From TrEMBL:
Protein name per its UniProtKB record: GTP cyclohydrolase II
Low complexity bias locations: 30-39
Reactions this protein catalyses: GTP + 4 H2O = 2,5-diamino-6-hydroxy-4-(5-phosphoribosylamino)-pyrimidine + formate + 2 phosphate + 3 H(+)
CDD domains for the chain: GTP_cyclohydro2
InterPro entries in alphabetical order: GTP_cyclohydro_II, RibA, RibA-like_sf
SUPFAM superfamilies linked to this entry: RibA-like
GO molecular function terms listed in the Swiss-Prot or TrEMBL record: GTP binding; GTP cyclohydrolase II activity
GO biological process: riboflavin biosynthetic process
Upper lineage: Eukaryota, Fungi, Dikarya, Ascomycota, Pezizomycotina
E.C. no: 3.5.4.25
Region (Disordered): 1-68, 170-190
Gene source species: Penicillium chermesinum
Keyword tags: GTP-binding, Hydrolase, Nucleotide-binding, Riboflavin biosynthesis
The keyword Nucleotide-binding appears for this protein: yes
Organism superkingdom: Eukaryota
Length: 379
């Protein structure tokens, strides 16, 4: 590192992910971070630590390096990253027990597709972020929300969403909907609920990014969970066919772990590194973050609160994901949740032979890296 170019900035201490979550250090994390990094922010080889946030050159980059004094740095980084092409597999690291979560408020949201969902907002004892559960159907209820709070009135309960059935002007009781019996009261045996654990992605969900398929996955999960069964056409995807009329509905647990846990600012730096030639994993590592800094303890705790855990739902859940590490991580340290089935999420462009879905050179590289370096099962 002594013959770095004059413009290289001094070596900085490894950066922590911009999060106030202690779980980032110790909670169940995907084994991808474990694979490439040992489960925590890794002790990366000296040569891999970038002397500046944006290295002068990145592996696979197209810069002309021959006359550039950064050539040696580039070569050292490339050599250090080479072992990551086939990272060893490791089980996800799990916390000994789940964090505490509490549903603070729930509200009915009619959606632009015509389906209806109940948005649940959670607080927890690990961070101060507002993690969410998007619940489809009437059978899935939050135990912490329904619990009586000292001194509260019926109106208080209705305002925080702890009511059965539907609200309507003039309603006075949170417990009895005099207009309609709650469907949960008439519920027969139900299918295991469909669940998606979704990590926040501002660029893919809000800012129309074609670098990733996060927005498409969120839409698709909601579509599958809100499918009115009578409208199912014969050519509907297999995942949708499996949502039977006696389905328990579905839950999207929406975790505020943007950029696989490194935050939006760091993800944008990673995008610049990707434009300089790195793939998604290399870019994270060059910025001294784990390949995947996420954890799933909060999602497991939220599922248990929603009655999708093994205590109330011994038949398990069906998990919408291509990420094998998520399956094990979401089950929790003591198998608090049981994943009965993994339901794959095939990109729309692949399913429709390019007719619909995201088209960009970036998304192809992104999906390819998920398969080759992160073990995603996208058939
Ligand atoms: N650091 C980083 N994060 C990214 C990038 N592209 C998308 N993300 C984030 O990745 C997260 C989504 O995770 P994915 O790896 O796409 O998918 P997954 O959740 O592991 O697996 P699935 O359940 O199959 O979707 C979101 O938080 C995105 O913001 C990237 O290039 N770099």
């Amino acid at each position: 590192m002594t013959d770095l170019p004059a413009h290289a900035s001094p070596k900085l201490e490894p950066q922590a992910a911009p999060s106030d979550r202690p779980e980032d250090q110790s909670d169940n994390v995907s084994s991808t971070s474990g694979t490439a990094t040992g489960g925590q922010t890794p002790a990366l080889p000296e040569s891999l630590l970038s002397p500046a946030f944006t290295p002068p050159a990145t592996p696979g980059g197209t810069l002309n390096l021959d006359t550039n004094p950064t050539k040696r740095l580039h070569q050292t980084q490339a050599a250090s990253l080479r072992h990551l092409e086939d990272p060893p597999k490791k089980a996800p690291k799990l916390l000994p027990e789940l964090p505490h979560v509490e549903c603070i408020v729930r509200a009915r949201i009619p959606t632009t597709t015509g389906a209806e969902m109940f948005l649940h907002l959670y607080h927890n004892d690990l961070d101060n972020k507002e993690h969410l559960a998007i619940v489809f159907g009437n059978t899935i209820r939050s135990r912490s929300l329904d619990r009586a709070r000292p001194g509260e009135t019926e109106m208080d309960r209705m305002i925080r969403g702890a009511y059965v059935g539907k609200l309507h002007p003039g309603r006075v009781s949170s417990r009895f909907d005099d207009e309609k019996p709650s469907p949960s009261e008439t519920q027969k045996k139900v299918e295991p609920p469909l669940v998606r654990i979704h990590s926040e992605c501002y660029t893919g969900e809000t800012a129309w990014s074609a670098r990733c398929d996060c927005g498409e996955q969120l839409d698709e999960a909601a579509r599958l969970m809100s499918f009115p069964v009578e409208d199912l056409s014969a050519d509907a995807p297999l995942e949708a066919q499996s949502l039977k009329s006696d389905s328990a509905g579905g839950v999207i647990v929406y975790l505020r772990q943007e950029g696989r846990g490194i935050g939006l600012g760091e993800k944008l730096k990673a995008y610049n590194l990707q434009d300089l030639g790195s793939d998604t994993v290399e870019a994270n590592l060059l910025l001294r973050h784990p390949a995947d800094a996420r954890s799933y303890g909060l999602a497991t705790a939220i599922l248990v609160d929603l009655g999708c855990g093994a205590d109330m739902n011994p038949d398990g859940i069906r998990l919408l994901t291509n990420n094998p590490d998520k399956v094990r991580a979401i089950e929790g340290p003591n198998r608090e949740v049981m994943v009965k089935e993994r339901v794959p999420m095939i990109p729309l462009a692949w399913r429709t032979h390019g007719e619909r879905g995201i088209k960009s050179s970036e998304i192809e590289g992104y999906l390819q890296t998920k398969i080759s370096k992160m073990g995603h099962m996208i058939q």
